[in-house]
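Schema walk-through. Below, the input block comes first and the output block second. Nothing else is stored per chain. Lengths vary across the set, and this one has 222 residues.
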Amino acid sequence: MSRPIRILLFVAVLGLACSAGAMIMVLLNKPSTRSVNTQTESSPIAVSEMGLRILPFELTDQDGSTEDESLLEGHWTLAEFIFTNCPGACPVMTARMSAAAEQLTDSPLRYLSFSLDAERDTPEQLRTFAQNYDIDSDKWTLLTGDDSQVRKMVEEGLMLIIDKESTNEITLADGSTMKNITHPTRLFLVGPDLRVMEMYDSGDPAEVDRIVSDARRLIGGN
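--- output ---
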């Protein structure tokens, strides 16, 4: 066999060996789809990374003063969305917040209730509601006003739903009726930059302990 042919055969064999080696390296270093998927499935997105936030607003508090989003800026706030004639979830929601507040008297955490029913929840009505729950007005603000602002905040800022077209009716103390309002029953821990950092299920009494724990961990207090 002539030398040129031997050289060509050597180059061909070497090329095959290199190709095989490269293929083996690719297979050995290929990411495991299974391991990536497993990690994703076991690591849900934290609430603080969902992009939920309190949107700008201009509403009226229980004393008749105008308030906007600057009320929350620079502070930690526990917020809820309620209406004072609510016969179901709202009393429980406010009671959970009140229970947390009782345990966090030395914490700078503030509390905020957004009304979903500006027609009936006047500042006077909000004051009566606050008295019924022994709310400390120095740390707890109740807001009412343009319902469209609150709806936008819930639907666009928190990605949740408000439904005022329910067929269910509520009978009020004076004998009149109103349509029930379907709304979020979560409590929202809002950071100093208006981002929602955590959510709590108001239907679970154990969530009060989690609120207290999170408040002490994130913002201090005894």
